[in-house]
Amino acid sequence: MSPFKSSLYWRLLISFCAVNLLALALGGFLTTRFAAYTTAVEINWANLAQGADQAYEAGGTAALAEWALQQRHEGIEASLYEQGQALVPIRLPSSVQGSLQTWLDAKRDVVLQPWPNLYLAVQQVTGADGKTRQLVALSRVHTRLRPQTRQTIFLAIQGVLSLIFIGMVGWWVARNVAGPVEAIRHATQRMAAGELSARVGRDQGHAHDELAQLARDFDTMAERIEALVAHDRSVLQDLSHELRSPLARLHLILDLARRSKHADEAAGYFQQAEQEIDRLDSMTGEMLALSRLEGGIPGVSREPVELVGLLSECVRRAGLEAHAREITLALHPAAAVMVSGNELLLERAFDNLLSNAIKFSPVGGRVELSVQAGKDKVALSIRDHGPGVPSAELESLFRPLFRGSNAARADGHGLGLAIVQRVVRAHGGDIRASNADGGGLIVQLDLPLAPAERA
């Protein structure tokens, strides 16, 4: 995943940019206030005027120009005026130039602040030659700090503010990241210790960031694992119960065979023992198939499967069993339709459905099959005309080893429909059962069409 698509990345970027801008603005403001506050009376305008006059009298305009350059380095624009004319050039704002002559004609000392952070001083000074001159000085702050010093103060204040703000943002980020991570870590440790009910909780992290999504995914995974373990335990308990009866019968049969006095009598017991062994073998095979389906093996191999042709072949194979009970298998004509899946697993599912329908159909009954293709899926229904299933048992019909109140009518282990459900779900489909009007059970499968069929 690209970091530019991460909400956490954008939150951090915006936070740090905002912090830097805030530190820059607040640093400039505090620097100005600090310099003005700590050195507000440091400039002595009268002494400054005396220094300018002494430089002029000692070396003329050249010395005065050198003195003015030195003052400029210290943040002050200054020059001497004589008879309203500057003895060396001075840079003044145009608005100050318009009012300067008025202040010079007043012939008195003034210190003005025409705008915030701008100071203008006009000072009268009488030189050794007896002439009166006037100092005009302009300073951005009422201070004699050098520009380099002010820059140093600004950088120091900005650096301190940046450290403070970045520390606050870092604490906020660590709090928002470490909290969900610690919750996930704690839930993981609880699961590793065997507490399968451990959950992170839905309130970790922000609503849509990656950590909240990770917490939700962890909880979904934990719920799935808990459900699978609970299912496996239930199946194991049911299987142990189901195996106990044939094993007990097998033990009794063999004991009776061992005690038999005649070979013919023992042969009968051995025949019964073989039937019980076949029953155990069949049940074990079906449980192994169910276990493999639970493990997700069907998703490994997918290929186009022509559904109607496969169903026709399953009907043909089941014809022998149906003929023995005088049951008619009717597959309503349908056009060829393609699904994407595992042919062997689908074949096993159809065989189980047909076998189940035949077992519960009365002698001379009828089993009807139909296939109907829709826009995105194909619906396959199989209906028998047997006793149906009590409404209260329909929800449990696909549970492994479940045998309803009608189970006595036919042999079975309660695994056939459970295997069918796993196969259908492994193919992204759905299965449901309902009682038909007039009697009998309808089992309907919905399987997604192959991509080419959808197009």
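Second entry:
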Amino acid sequence: MSSADRPATRLATRLAFLVAGFGIACWAPLVPFAKARLAVDDGILGLLLLSLGIGSVVAMLLTGVMSARYGSKPIIIAGGLGLALVLPVLAIASSPVTLALVLLAFGAALGSIDVAMNIHAVEVERAAGRPLMSGFHALFSIGGFAGSALMTLLLSLHLGALACTLICSVLMLIATLIAWPRLLRSTKAQQGLLFVLPHGSVLLLALLCAITFLVEGAMLDWGALLVIGAGLLSEAQGGAGYIVFSIAMTAGRLGGDAVVARVGDHATLFWGSLLAIVGFAVLLTASVAAVAMSGFLLIGLGASNLVPVLFRRAATQTVMPTGLAVAAITTAGYAGILIGPAGVGFVARAVGLPVAFWLLAALMGLVTLSARIVAANPRQTAQPFSPPQRD
């Protein structure tokens, strides 16, 4: 059995995804406290939060270069430790400039581990000879649930923000230390060019990844307003749709590896995106809340395994080094989350939120139309996983 196909290595990869999801989710409940502590308005807060995105994007681009040369293990460890060590500082930053700098560091840690763990995951999956990527991404979602729930619980117990973050940081440190010796020492480090402009199939993968993440971001930021504006739910109940969407996403990813192993990447992309489009149609034509909730459910299930497949295809393309390709599509996906929801807002202001959501469905149609092209890789067929060779 190769080192990449050991159960301990798969555990370490899952822990990396768990830490990344947990870390970013721990910050979200702290935002109102940071705003009150610094006494800033929404505009200044928005600029401060932009620092997190800038740090993430810059780190993602650099991580692709560093992973191509040195492998993903040291970057995963640095990112996990960075999240754990910087999180408590977010709870005590006493000025806008300080918080901006700390958010920049926090974003850099998040961006680094995000790219590196996906590079590591594609190597582990390749060695296993069967789909694992959906399960890895499910751990990110579970980490997000756990982080936000635990931080909210601790804050509700009237513990100080610093104490809450220290507890969460200890948990991240423990998980990172457990993963440390079990991660692959290197992942086919590249000795050639350290930077290659995204091109060819990688550009298509990046576009599709941006679209899929845009849909996820829009469901978070605009889903509640859509159903409230349609008179289907009250303001107090508006978040129910995103809860259903999130549960469907997580459940879909937990079962996604078995689905991909059975039907292949092409069918997963085609039918998954088509199911999401049907979900949009159900949501946008619903006249009662229960039907709208089924729309959220279908969108979540349909979109759940698209990103894991796109990351897998980044590992099998031949036009770029794997690390640089994964960094490119990760950065594109993050841009979709950061910029996309704002774009939805501009469209909604011009022609209405329902029309903006129909446009999201149309964008998802690009995934459907591109499924065969994405899966037509000379190194891997639509039924991708043959029995692995053992050392």
